[in-house]
Amino acid sequence: MTARIERPLSPHLQTYRVTLTMALSIIHRATGIALYFGTLLFAWWLIAAASGPGAYANVQAFTGSIIGKLIVFGYTWSLLHHLCSGIRYFFWDLGYGFKANEREALTWGALIAGISLTVLVWIIAYTVGGGR
Amino acid sequence: MSAPRSMRTPLGRVRNLGSSHSGTTDFWRQRLTAVAMTLLIIPVIVIILMLIGRNQAGAAQILGSLPIAIILVLFIVASTWHMRIGMQIVIEDYVHNEKIKLASVMANNFFCIAVALASIYAILKLSSGV
Predict the structure, then answer these.
(1) N or C: which end of chain A has fewer CB within 10 A?
(2) What is the ipTM for the molecules in this complex?
(3) Does any CB of chain B come closer than 8 Å to the CB of residue A61?
(4) What is the pLDDT of residues A86-99, one digit of tens each?
(5) Counted domains in chain B
(6) How many CA atoms lie within 13 A of A95 on its CB side?
(7) Which residues of chain A does B86 touch, with a Cβ-Cβ cutoff of 8 Å?
């Protein structure tokens, strides 16, 4: 076998000018990681519902607190942003939307749709049940 | 570059002991689960909105209904599978120490399977009304 060759490495993030698609790519990954740990809240909630009134009241006390509300709000945005941003990747996987104006439009669309849907869901949540 | 010890070409080596033809499995499953969740997200959000402001008895009654339980189980399977693949990609991108990488990938699998099975078990328990 030949010795390991010191190949040139591609420059890392800090070398590049920040662009919208690059920022959204990073946010896509960040929201994915947030959702990963956010499933703990989802699982806790389901297990509490299956356990009984006391356990469920604990979850409601947490999600009703200010910190809890912020976390659930963040979770809602992460979920809906990751969804909209992910739909963008479907276009690219299928080979569409690679022109400069198209990818910018898709990316702005994902960002705006994610925020709008989050606000919409919370308006409905407050209309239906006055938060949790 | 030192002289190769074997007469076999790199291509020949790859053909015999090379690809296991599973290189795109994770890519495909990531898209499969993503499409599944895109279809399921509206029913799931409606279910969660239905539960807001209810106590445990009310929530348990809704979660125990058959179509709702099935939608949630499907969503849990798709999401935990999706996040297992996603986190593995993140680990492989940033963790360069082989042993820590191995442990992280293993912990990732344990975490995702535990979240999935605990959530599914909770739904089954609600469905059986025990």
Answers:
(1) N
(2) 0.87
(3) no
(4) 999 999 999 999 99
(5) 1
(6) 0
(7) 32, 36
